[in-house]
Write a structure and sequence with these properties.
Layout: H1 2-18, H2 23-42, H3 46-50, E1 53-60, E2 66-68, H4 69-82, E3 83-97, E4 101-116, E5 119-136, E6 139-154, E7 157-163
Parallel strand pairs: 1-6
Antiparallel strand pairs: 1-2, 3-4, 4-5, 5-6, 6-7
Length: about 160
């Protein structure tokens, strides 16, 4: 009898962990989305890149300034031309599912070679970001982002100081 209870518990637990809406599955799904965003950026594919950001998307920097989707995409398009990413990681701090999607708090580390005014420089960015994702018809999109902290350096020197 105890063996049957243990097996039933194991099966139920395994099914819950594999559930498409489980927090673990959502984290895997979002991890894949971040990888695809990186790939689109690296390939300088602004059309693919923009598909990950929903209509009405906004991003708030640590100082509280808000940028809309169009301005963010214009800036990203310019950055795609100037920056070759050599290292990019996203580490999940917390993923919180909700009725229409999820909120992901991440730590991001990006390093790349930036060409500006004929010279190449090493850009390094560390950011803590909260993204609000929505899943619509099986497709995940970021609806808003908030940078909690941002530290950027160029050739090892602080770029505009630290923002928190």
């Amino acid at each position: 009898m105890q063996l049957h209870i243990a097996l039933a518990t194991l099966v139920l637990t395994a099914n819950w962990a594999a559930s498409p809406d489980s927090p673990a599955q959502i984290e895997r799904d979002l991890g894949h989305q971040y990888d695809l965003i990186h790939q689109a950026f690296r390939n300088k594919d602004i059309k693919a890149f923009s598909s990950f950001y929903g209509a009405g998307f906004t991003v708030r920097n640590p100082a509280g300034d808000i940028t809309d989707r169009a301005a963010m995409l214009a800036g990203s398009s310019q950055q795609m031309q100037m920056l070759k990413i050599t290292s990019w990681t996203v580490k999940f701090e917390k993923v919180t599912p909700d009725k229409s999607g999820a909120t992901a708090r991440t730590m991001r580390h990006t390093v790349g070679n930036m060409t500006a005014q004929g010279a190449t420089h090493v850009l390094s960015v560390d950011a803590e970001v909260i993204d609000h994702w929505r899943k619509n018809n099986g497709h995940w999109q970021i609806m808003s982002s908030q940078a909690i902290s941002l530290k950027a350096t160029v050739d090892g020197k602080p770029l505009g100081g630290h923002m928190t």
